[in-house]
Design a protein that fits this description.
Order of helices and strands: EEHEHHEEEEEHEHEHHEHHEHEEEEH
Largest sheet: 8 strands, antiparallel
Oligomer: single chain
Strand order of the largest sheet: 2-1-4-5-8-9-3-10
Low-confidence stretches: 29-33
Number of helices: 11
Amino acid sequence: MPLLQSTVYRLEPSLDGERLSVTAPPAEAAAASDDTVMASLVNALNDTYNTKAKGWGRFAEQGEQAGPLVAWLSAYQADEQTFAQLANAMAERLAQTLQGQLSVGGYLVIAHLRQGDTETLLMALIHQREGIGFNDAHQAVPAAQLNTSQLTLAARINLTQWQSGVESTQYVSFLKDRGGKKLADGVAALLGMEEGIDAPAETRTLLKAFSDYVEKEDLDDDASREKTDTLVDYANEQLRRGEPMTLEELSELVDEKQPKAFYDHIRNADYGLSPEIPPDKRTISQFRRFTGRAGGVSISFDSHLLGSSIEYDETQDRLIIKQVPKQLKEQLAKRKE
């Protein structure tokens, strides 16, 4: 992933925790395409960011949420200001926004990168931790390390999608960890954005639509398991790449012989899903199907239903289904007639 520009700032809270100082790099950051170490760091941050829970949205056009970032980005894209000027403005405004919120100092990395035809702007705060390394004499010595696997706050802007003019609610994202709500709110304020999609809720609705589709098609155990694996593998691959799931693309993968079948099912049932859905890692990781066949009985259900509409009594070796599928109930009712 080519790194076009990058720079790093030091954010340091005061002893009383009420103020946050910003230390800029000694010299203006130059194009970093030949800096392999910095490129590796930014790629590692980008990969970590892809796997984290995020809020998604777009720049607010007016009102209290709108901020100056859009104007700064427009000036940078038009070559009316340098990357260093853009980064300085972002770092200073973030420090003002997070006054009293940051308890531990860290390094703010701001990078402009390109992947394929897409350009993005990544901002991430990382902390340094003490570690151990070896010197030239093969002796163990203290060695500071950057903790790239844990981010305090981060945000990413898809510059290409933003400038394309295509109506979208997902070109701005920011880290949205449950334990860091105030920091997340501060980043959202810096971005001047409005959230446009609830990734966990959308992912849950997609999985519900998939479960309904599998039930409607009355698939056997092997086919059901294969399609579930296809969905989960696709979602995890999009997570790794930091890209949303596309309903049409997913439909083609779920059923190659009928590439529009799952997509038509979603649209005809009116689940209210967006054409593109950022996958939620936690929701996806909980989604698998349990299947079993023995003595003329075949059972298949989504793992997330266990403990809610389906219960397993291990001591009695019983499976309790609280919500019997409509189709099955109709068959059982006809049997009594």
